[in-house]
Specification:
Blueprint: H1 4-8, H2 12-43, H3 51-54, E1 62-63, E2 73-74, H4 77-85, H5 89-105, H6 107-114, H7 120-129, H8 135-145, H9 155-169, H10 171-183, E3 186-189, E4 204-207, H11 210-230, H12 240-253, H13 261-264, E5 272-273, E6 283-286, E7 290-293, H14 294-301, H15 328-337, E8 354-357, E9 372-375, H16 377-385, E10 389-394, E11 397-401, E12 407-411, E13 414-417
Antiparallel strand pairs: 1-2, 3-4, 5-6, 6-7, 8-9, 10-11, 11-12, 12-13
Helix pairs in contact: 2-5, 4-5, 5-7, 8-9, 9-10, 11-12
Length: 422
């Protein structure tokens, strides 16, 4: 770490030299992490699994992380690596897959990465775009993009180059993807987009063929023009984008331009969590959308919705039950207290996660608050069969021990690794 006092005494030229050194250090660290991921995969070959145990439900099996022709890896290896590098098991699995693909399927790119001529991020992008290709096809792409992967062309042009080489390497597969894309039409609410939910916004996406989208765009444009003519003074319809959103709404509902949205839109349920006790403006949380201010709830939801105020849910007063099955009131309490997956560095916040007994029920763990933790199925299996241990010293505070002795604390603020001394 560079001392701040030393930096303050440096000239511009010296500061730029330090900046270059820092960038090179980060560059080398990315390459070293790929090397570590590759060696981790080597150490976790399928041969280390007990065949008699692997066939049992939920137990660890071998899986194909990389592309065709790349060795398989034990299923839970990524989770063990993930907690040590501060990433989710999915991200660690992608790192291992990229490392294996570079070593086995992209020798030219890998050589340039190790020589410090190509950024790891460029090389990893190529591996993700060629994972479905056969080894000889991947090698064709490798040879075609390795020279240009050193940053000599802008990123957008590099993306186009890779896409072209992938299509050229496997034209049949490219046609299959086009046919699948033609069938993959949808109209749905998007998953969370960073930054949108902070402002109380969300997105709805329609995917169809170009002709259909052009027709939809023309209809929205025409309706937006009519709205501008009929409501020139409406404060909520002063921009073209505002009028187009209103036009989409009216086209969907089939009502005329003068309709009251509150009357034509279908009824939906939003769950808003309100918190008090601060001398600042309260911040509320809309489930599935994120935090919003009290002003947003008052100004946006207030004129349009009916509110049903529920009493504060008594998290601490949930009496345990003498059964393995978890009652609905316990699930609600767990979601309110711990809305995210409790595996280290996990990100899922769905209500549909499995609720695990921290201390297994058949080992004396009670079915009660303080012995529950939501997890997705894969993380639940890793906890049960992957030699991870977890304790919950206080409700909502999870202390994990990974198979190699590292400790990690998970709570409502996220994941932190405990120092070895602790």
């Amino acid at each position: 770490m560079v001392d701040l006092g030393v930096l303050e005494e440096m000239s511009e030229h010296e500061l730029l030299d330090v900046a270059g050194d820092c960038a090179q250090t980060a560059w080398r660290a990315e390459v070293d992490l790929l090397r570590v991921a590759y060696q981790w995969a080597v150490l976790h070959a399928p041969e280390r699994l007990d065949p008699a145990r692997s066939v049992r439900p939920g137990r660890e099996k071998a899986c194909q992380l990389g592309g065709h022709g790349v060795p398989r890896v034990t299923e839970f290896a990524a989770a063990e690596l993930a907690v040590r590098i501060g990433r989710s098991p999915y991200a660690a699995a992608q790192l291992i897959a990229d490392a294996l693909d570079l070593c086995y399927r992209h020798p030219q790119l890998w050589a340039r990465v190790q020589a410090g001529e190509v950024r790891a991020s460029y090389a990893r992008y190529v591996t993700t775009k060629t994972r479905d290709l056969q080894p000889d096809e991947a090698a064709f792409v490798d040879a075609g993009v390795a020279e240009s992967a050193d940053g000599r062309i802008p990123w957008s042009r590099f993306e186009a180059l890779v896409a072209g080489k992938v299509a050229q390497a496997a034209p049949g597969l490219a046609r299959q993807k086009e046919e699948r894309a033609a069938r993959a039409t949808f109209a749905r609410k998007l998953r969370r987009v960073p930054g949108e939910q902070a402002a109380g916004m969300a997105s709805f996406l329609i995917r169809a063929d170009a002709a259909t989208i052009e027709a939809i765009d023309a209809a929205v444009t025409a309706r937006a023009v009519r709205i501008a003519q009929r409501f020139p003074d409406d404060p909520d319809l002063q921009t073209d984008d505002q009028r187009r959103v209103r036009a989409v709404t009216l086209l969907i509902t089939g009502d005329d331009d003068g309709a009251d949205l509150a009357d034509v839109l279908p009824a939906v349920q939003l769950i808003v969590h309100a918190y008090v006790g601060s001398d600042r403006e309260p911040v509320m949380r809309v489930e599935g959308h994120g935090p919003v201010t009290e002003s947003w709830v008052r100004d946006v939801l207030g004129p349009r919705v009916r509110f049903t105020i529920q009493p504060v849910f008594d998290l601490a007063g949930q009496a345990p039950v003498d059964a393995y099955e978890i009652p609905d009131r316990h699930r609600q309490a767990v979601h309110l207290m711990t809305p995210a997956d409790t595996f280290p560095y996990a990100s899922c916040t769905s209500r549909r996660m499995q609720v695990d007994h921290t201390v297994p029920y058949d080992e004396g763990g009670e079915s009660g608050i303080g012995n529950y933790g939501p997890m997705v199925t894969r993380h639940h299996r890793i906890k049960t069969h992957g030699h991870f241990e977890v304790r919950q010293p206080f409700p909502g505070i999870y202390v994990w021990r990974d198979p190699h002795g590292g400790f990690h604390v998970v709570d409502h603020t996220g994941t932190r690794r405990l120092p070895e001394a602790a």
